[in-house]
Amino acid sequence: MKIKQLRMMNGLSQSAFAKQLNIAQNTLSNYENGQRKPDPEIIKLIADKYKVTTDYLLDADQICDDRMGSALKSERKMQGLTLAELSRETKIPQKDLEDYENNIEPINFYLFKILCAYFDKTPEAFYKDHEMYDEYIPEIFDGDVDKYEQFKKARDIDVANERIQKNACFVNSELGKVSHDNRFITLYRKYAQLPQDKQKIVDGVIDGFLPAKPKEDLPDDDDLD
Question: Which residues are registered as beta bridge partners of 108?
Fold first, then answer.
């Protein structure tokens, strides 16, 4: 649960944070200490109010990769930053940053994206720079992982749109068949209700346009119900 971390990142005391959420301070304290689990409504309220994901608050987006700690430390040093400076710039508590670098606790993807944004690179570029990007990049992209990721997103959108169009065509086709079948059944019922002399007139008209069709090919009245 990252409620305490979020409060600290926003520079709020327990009383101020509880007031903003319209809950008692001791209730918030129980949430932060793990003595009580917040209701889904509270989680959603916090996520909406502070523009974070519910997965982040619930620790459901942790990056469980043993390579991440050393990669974070290497990137920070490459950027010429101390833990204190990185903490001050990103608002992530220094102790938490230290735990992430030492693999004491896995970092959340939400926080990882904050760090990547401060490092001025995408998460994929971070992975590639630290040999964590395990997917093959075709030569045409000349090792540019961001261009490759953009291509994949565009490709996925095209595939999704094509699938939607195919499904729409199939639905329209099936609806057309149903509509055609319903019209035939309606017309045949009307034909069956005609007197014999009138049916002969209709038969003559049909014979003038279509090859003769055996009478037994027409559906029985019971089959139309």
Answer: 62
Q: Are residues 74 and 51 in the same domain?
A: no
pTM as predicted: 0.68
Q: How many residues does the chain have?
A: 225
Q: Which residues contact 203 (CB under 8 A, 6 or more apart)?
A: none
Name beta bridge partners: 62: 108
Domain of residue 24 covers: 3-57
Same domain? For 119 and 175 the reply is no
Q: Write phi, then psi, for 134 (nearest 5 degrees).
A: -90, 0
- 140 found inside a domain: no
Q: pLDDT digit string (tens) for 187-196?
A: 777 777 888 7
Tokens of residue 147, six digits: 């261009």
Whether residue 173 has pLDDT greater than 60: yes
Q: How many domains does the chain have?
A: 3
Where do the H-state alpha helices sit in 54-122?
54-57, 68-78, 83-90, 94-101, 109-118
Q: How many CB atoms lie within 10 A of CB 2?
A: 21
Mind listing the pLDDT tens digit for each residue in 98-155? 999 999 999 999 999 999 999 999 999 999 999 999 999 999 999 999 999 999 889 9
| Same domain, yes or no: 125 and 88 | yes
Q: Let me know whether 83 and 113 are in one domain.
A: yes
Assigned domain for 205 exists: yes
Instruction: Tell me the C-alpha distance between 189 and 169, whole Å.
Output: 30
**Helix, strand or coil for residue 108?**
strand
